[in-house]
Amino acid sequence: MFLETPKKKIAKGDKATFEFLTNLENFEQLMPDNIAKFEVLSEDRFLFALKGMPEIVLERKSQTPYSKLVLGAASEKLPFTLTADITAVNTNESEVVLSFLGEFNAMMAMMIKSPITNFMGTLSENLTKI
């Protein structure tokens, strides 16, 4: 299952946007209002839970300075990645597209498509406010 947010303009250059996203503590600022738990576990891992949903641990899988950050599920039960692609517009502006890629059976994909789409939309929208 592949989901992608519309491109969002960020009032920071690509370097500043990348540095904001690679500091995993900053993801707390991007989370939806219904966040029940957020905890940085290490420099490369954080845990979060939305009300009524199980806890998810995300870990840094890879990064390309100033253009890409890939986070992935630490658990093999729900294998997925969340990728932020950053494009420089000028020195004080960049664009970010978030994408989600997961391997789920049809039933699971149907159940999680709407919540994941809403979650990514919120992350993307909150990113424009940084």
Largest sheet: 8 strands, antiparallel
Q: Give the beta-strand count.
A: 8
CATH topology-level fold name: Alpha-D-Glucose-1,6-Bisphosphate, Chain A, domain 4
End-to-end CA span = 29 Å
Radius of gyration: 14 Å
**Can you tell me the residue ranges where pLDDT is under 50 for at least 5 consecutive residues?**
none
User: In the residues, how many domains can be counted?
Assistant: 1
Structural class: alpha+beta
- Proportion in β-strands: 35-45%
- Name the CATH superfamily classification: START domain
**What is the 3D shape?**
globular
Helix % is 25-40%
Number of separate helices: 3
Mean pLDDT: 95
Give the CATH architecture: 2-Layer Sandwich
Which CATH class applies here?
Alpha Beta
Q: What letter string, H or E per element, gives the SSE order?
A: EEHHEEEEEEH
Describe what you observe in this structure.
- There is one protein chain.
- The protein is an alpha+beta fold and 130 residues long.
- It has a single domain, classed as START domain (Alpha-D-Glucose-1,6-Bisphosphate, Chain A, domain 4).
- It is built from 3 helices and 8 strands.
- Strands 1, 2, 3, 4, 5, 6, 7 and 8 form an 8-stranded antiparallel sheet that branches.
- β3 and β4 form a beta hairpin.
- It is globular.
- The termini are far apart.
What labels describe this entry?
130 residues, alpha+beta, Alpha-D-Glucose-1,6-Bisphosphate, Chain A, domain 4, eight-stranded antiparallel β-sheet, 3 helices, 43% strand, globular, Carbon monoxide dehydrogenase subunit G
In short:
The chain starts with a strand and ends with a helix. The protein has one domain: Alpha-D-Glucose-1,6-Bisphosphate, Chain A, domain 4. The protein is α+β, with helices and mostly antiparallel strands and 130 residues long.
